[in-house]
């Protein structure tokens, strides 16, 4: 049973490393900010979760597994929030290529919000 867990852990580690590599290639190859953010968050988070799972299967230590669960939880909580905030800030700063957007949901909302911001 130990050999099976070690092999499964190694496979998960390799898959996680591959997804992280795909995320890095996407950061270099995609044309605009929003697609780069997508490649930085989606495969990278899944890659990290696979690496964490692989480490948990290989180490099989309750203390190490608890720390790995904390790492995975914080990554799952912070990555979507950070990516949302960066995307929204870049949209407001005009750094998003609107010709590549399929649907612009903020186009009608943000000008109204900018008018009512209060004191300059």
TrEMBL record:
Q: Which domain of life is it from?
A: Bacteria
The answer, when asked if Acetylation is one of the entry's keywords, is: no
The leader peptide range reads none
Q: What keywords tag this UniProt record?
A: Membrane, Transmembrane, Transmembrane helix
Q: Mark the transmembrane ranges.
A: 6-28
Alphabetized NCBIfam families for the sequence: CPA3_mnhG_phaG, PRK12674.1-2
Q: What is this protein called?
A: Monovalent cation/H(+) antiporter subunit G
Protein source organism = Nocardioides imazamoxiresistens
The encoding gene:
mnhG
